Amino acid sequence: MKGSTHRRCYCRDPKTGKPLGKSCPKLSSRKHGSYSIRQELPPREDGTRRSFSRAGYETLKEAQADLDHVRALLGLAESDDAEALARIAELLETVAAEKAPLPNIESTRRRLSHGLDLISRLTVGEWLDMWLAGKKGRQSAISRDESNIRVHLKPRIGHLRLDRLRVSHLSEMFEAIAEGNVEIAEGNAARRKAFEDLARIPWKGASRALGVRR
Questions:
Q1: Mean pLDDT of the chain
Q2: DSSP string covering 19-50
Q3: For the purposes of burial, counting CB atoms within 10 Å of the CB of 109, is it exposed (0-12), middle (13-18) or buried (19 or more)?
Q4: Which residues pair with 19 in a beta bridge?
Q5: pLDDT band at residue 91, thresholds of 50, 70 and 90?
Q6: N or C: which end of the chain has fewer CB within 10 A?
């Protein structure tokens, strides 16, 4: 399926007010105008054509990166799997219409393989479940990851939509974990001191302190 990048500007003819388009003399400068991409998608069930389009890229490199991303998403489905291709095409149509960020390739692959809806908003908790289900390696490492997800990640960020997860959410989570660890350490230290204090009390003194009669 065809795909391409284009550069255009929004300058207008001062006399007619019409867009200059490719005739703009400033387009000879790579810093003028912006780039856009267009990728042909599998046709709809009725045979009508559809495509993914996005504009506003400052550099050709940024535009090409998103075009490659779109092509990688399309490549998740086998060429003879019409249903999977249609699901990905519908996803890309929705993303383009909502001007939303392109979905993560690996999470889309997992959702596709699990038969999950590609358009619904995936939460961090759902993504972590899929990541853990597909993880391979030593059972001890998998168990440790499962524990970290259950104890730390899901309670704090599991409810967030994956496409809305920000660095600030992670910073707050790590700060909360650090504060919790400090409280645990302080509690453990207090208990150790209490045991040490009790160990230094003579037996008879301990008996009197506890009100034990002999």
A1: 85
A2: B-GGG-GGGGSTTSSEEEEEEEEPPPTTS--E
A3: middle
A4: 12
A5: very high
A6: C
Which residue range forms the structural domain that includes residue 22? 1-115
145 and 174 belong to one structural domain: no
Q: Are 35 and 7 in contact (CB under 8 A)?
A: yes
Residue-wise pLDDT tens digits, 12-39: 888 888 877 777 877 777 777 789 999 9
C-alpha torsion sign, points 74, 75, 77, 78: positive
Statement to judge: residues 133 and 84 lie in one domain: no
Full-model pTM: 0.55
CB of 121 closer than 8 Å to CB of 161? yes
> Contact, 5 vs 67, CB < 8 A?
yes
Alpha helices, DSSP H, located in the chain: 60-74, 82-98, 105-113, 124-133, 139-148, 154-157, 167-200, 203-209
- pLDDT digit string (tens) for 97-107? 988 889 889 88
Distance in angstroms (rounded) separating the CA atoms of residues 181 and 66: 41
